[in-house]
Write a structure and sequence with these properties.
The chain is an alpha+beta fold. 66% of the residues lie in helices and 12% in strands. Strands 1, 2, 3, 4 and 5 form a five-stranded antiparallel β-sheet that branches. The protein is elongated, with a radius of gyration of 40 Å.
Length: 313
C-alpha cells in the first residue's frame, strides 16, 4: 500500500474521492487491468489528509493480485508521475512496507546516530506492546510538535467515534424502552383477552348445563364463590384495604396542596424515583381494581347462571 498526504481537508477528499480514483487511474496509464482501491482516509494536522491506496491487477484468467508497494512506489516516484501527483495536491508519498524480522532486530539492536544507547535500551524495555509498536527517536522541536499534533488529532477522531457510539447506545436504549412498553401492553391485552375467554366459557357452560340438575361439585363451587365474594367485600379484606389506600392517597394529595408554599430541597434523581414509584403504585392499584371488578362480574354471571339452572330444575 502507498500512503499519500494531500494538502486538502478530509471533507474535500471524501467528497471528491471518485474523481481522485479516476485521476490516479489516468496517471497509471488507464490500464484496464489495473484498479485503484482506497483503503483508508483520515485527517491530519495543518489541514492535511492521509489517503492509503493499493492497486489490484487482474490477469487474463480473472485472478487479481496486489501490486507490491515497493514496485508501485518506484513507478510513482518517476519525475512525470510525481508532477502529476503534485497537481492533485499530493505533498508526500510513503510506501507502507512490511519489515522483516532481521531488519527489525537490526533497528532495535542499534541505537540511532546521536542517541544514547542506554536511553534506546530503556525505550525498548518501556515498550508497552513490542509486537505492534517500536520506539522512534524524537529529534528536534518540529518532530515533537508534529507528534503532539498527531496525538491531538487522533484523540479528536476517537472522541468523535465515541460520540457516535454514544448516540447509537441512546437509540438502542430508546428502542429497548419501546419494546418493553409494547411487551407490557401485550401482556395487558393478553390478560384482557383471558378474562373475555373466561366469560365466554362461563356462558357456554351455563348454556350447556341448562335443564340439568345441579351437581354436588357445582353446589360446592357456588358456596366457595360466595365465600370468596364475602371475603372481598369484608371491611378488613381486600376491598376495605383498597378504599383505605385510596383515602390515604387523597389525604396526602390534599395535605401536599396545603403545604405547597413551604420550600423543600429534593434532588432531581430522588424526585424521579418518587415519580416512578408513585406511578407504579397507581398502575398497580388500577390493575388490581380492574381485576377485582372483572372477577366480581364473572362471579355475578356464574351466580346468575346457577340461579337460572336451579329454576329450570
Amino acid at each position: 500500500m502507498i500512503i499519500l498526504h494531500f494538502k486538502k481537508k478530509e471533507s474535500e477528499i471524501r467528497s471528491q474521492q471518485q474523481q481522485l480514483v479516476d485521476s490516479l487511474f489516468r496517471i497509471l496509464g488507464s490500464n484496464q487491468s489495473l484498479s485503484v482501491c482506497v483503503e483508508d482516509v483520515r485527517s491530519l494536522p495543518d489541514g492535511k489528509t492521509e489517503v492509503v491506496i493499493y492497486i489490484l491487477e487482474r490477469s487474463a484468467t480473472g485472478l487479481s493480485k496486489r501490486i507490491p508497494a515497493s514496485q508501485l512506489f518506484t513507478h510513482l516516484s518517476q519525475y512525470q508521475m510525481k508532477n502529476q501527483l503534485g497537481q492533485l495536491g499530493v505533498v508526500e508519498m510513503v510506501p507502507k512496507l512490511a519489515v522483516s524480522g532481521a531488519q527489525l532486530d537490526a533497528y532495535l539492536n542499534n541505537s540511532p546516530l546521536g542517541y544514547d544507547p542506554r536511553l534506546w535500551r530503556q525505550a525498548r524495555l518501556d515498550n508497552p506492546d513490542p509486537d505492534s509498536l517500536i520506539p522512534v527517536p524524537m529529534v528536534g522541536f518540529h518532530t515533537l510538535k508534529s507528534r503532539l499534533e498527531n496525538q491531538e488529532q487522533q484523540t479528536k477522531q476517537q472522541q468523535a467515534r465515541l460520540d457516535l457510539i454514544g448516540k447509537d447506545i441512546e437509540t438502542l436504549q430508546h428502542n429497548q424502552d419501546t419494546i418493553h412498553a409494547k411487551i407490557a401492553e401485550y401482556k395487558r391485552r393478553h390478560q384482557e383477552l383471558s378474562h373475555r375467554v373466561l366469560q365466554v366459557m362461563v356462558r357456554q357452560e351455563v348454556q350447556r348445563k341448562l335443564g340439568i340438575a345441579i351437581q354436588i361439585e357445582e353446589e360446592q363451587l357456588h358456596t366457595n364463590l360466595e365465600t370468596v365474594q364475602a371475603e372481598l367485600n369484608a371491611p378488613a379484606q381486600m376491598k376495605g384495604r383498597l378504599n383505605e389506600m385510596m383515602s390515604q392517597v387523597r389525604l396526602h394529595s390534599h395535605v401536599g396542596g396545603r403545604r405547597g408554599d413551604e420550600q423543600y430541597q429534593i434532588s432531581p434523581e430522588l424526585q424521579q424515583e418518587i415519580r416512578q414509584h408513585l406511578k407504579q403504585q397507581q398502575e398497580g392499584l388500577s390493575h388490581l381494581i380492574n381485576t377485582i371488578k372483572d372477577d366480581v362480574e364473572d362471579l355475578k354471571l356464574i351466580d346468575t347462571g346457577l340461579e337460572e339452572a336451579s329454576l329450570v330444575r
